[in-house]
Amino acid sequence: MNNTFAAFTSVHDVPDIASLLEEALRIKQTPLAWSEMGRHKTLALVFFNSSLRTRLSSQKAAWNLGMNTMVVNVGTESWKLEMHDGAVMDSDTVEHIKEGAAVIGSYSDIIGVRAFASLTDKAADTSEHTLRQFQKYAAKPLMSLESALRHPLQSLSDLLTIEEVRRREGMTRRPKVVLSWAPHPKALPQAVPNSFAEWMLRADVDFVITHPEGYELDETFTQGASVITNQDEALCDADFVYAKNWSAFQGENYGKVLSNNPSWKITAEKMRLTREGKFMHCLPTRRNVEVADEVLDSPSSLVIQQAQNRVVAAQSVLKRMVAAMS
Ligand code: CP
Q: DSSP strand E in 41-99: where?
């Protein structure tokens, strides 16, 4: 099986998840063992949205492989890009993505792009318009740093974290993994839950999604998962609880906050329903809105391990993308 990657935008770009996980575990042990591999290769990181973990972990991963990195924040540090073909650019966009992406592509060997969902234009969001336009015009191998639909580097890191805990605790049963909607003051995209579902459904776990009525995700990502609207029932005997807010996806409610029921916050009492379950979140999280301090500050919280594993995930992916070039 060819284990190199020409692109990394979803789980569908990974021919063998088990082999990628084993490689990630090896990389975590000896992160500098391939420090010459990416010499003279340049990774450009293009951000249309804010980031802490993705920005820093991708750079560190590239440096561990000997790569150079360039980071650009579109619209603040560079020109605001026009995304529409045929646009008459007499308003606030200064440069078309056709030129902008092509120029960045000409400076780079691999490009990472972060472009969140607008939550207002469902058609553009569901086609990952910005990410795919960049891929087309940059014409270089692309690593998603979170698109309108997916966050595959986060999901790989999450799967790696679950695997590490399984091995550390000698867990021989199939773990029960619960993705729970949690309250949040703002409307957030569905990319993290979509992606987490897509990866969990290919992993050796029992996967359950719980959310209030109206927050059904796109079945493209969740088909095969158990979906339960009673959170307490879903959390029963869970080994891992992954909390995340998302806005409504279905119909006219796309991108809306339908309810913010605080009873969906993950508390110590909720965690007592689990089988001494571990708490997971991709971060950033709103303390005492999505999850109580008592959970986030407890030994059951894996959030820092997940964030640390973002470096390993990015390095595993970049290593395979660099390998595809040689
Ligand atoms: N989890 C994650 O992607 O974090 P950032 O938004 O800070 O990159």
A: 42-47, 68-73, 81-82, 95-96
Q: What is the pLDDT of residues 120-138, one digit of tens each?
A: 999 999 999 999 999 999 9
CA angle 145-189-165, nearest 5°?
Answer: 65
**Probe ligand 1: pick from 50, 52, 194, 244, max atoms within 8 Å of CB?**
52
The yes/no answer on whether domain 154-307 falls in CATH 3.40.50.1370 is yes
CA-based radius of gyration for the chain: 20
**Ligand 1 pocket member 53 (CB < 6 A):** yes
CB of 51 shorter than 6 A to ligand 1: yes
d(CA 234, CA 241): 10
Helices 152-168 + 17-29 axis angle, to 10: 70
Q: Quick check: helix, strand or coil at residue 313?
A: helix
Domain boundaries, the chain: 11-150+310-323, 154-307
What is the average pLDDT score of the chain? 97
Q: Kindly give the number of the ligand 1 atom that is closest to the alpha carbon of 49.
A: 6
Give the neighbor-by-neighbor strand order of the sheet with 278-280: 226-228, 206-210, 176-181, 240-244, 278-280
Residue type, 167: R
**11-150+310-323 and 154-307 share one CATH topology?**
yes
CATH of the structural domain 11-150+310-323, one choice from 3.40.50.1370, 2.40.240.10, 3.40.980.10, 3.60.110.10 = 3.40.50.1370
Please give the pLDDT value at position 1: 62
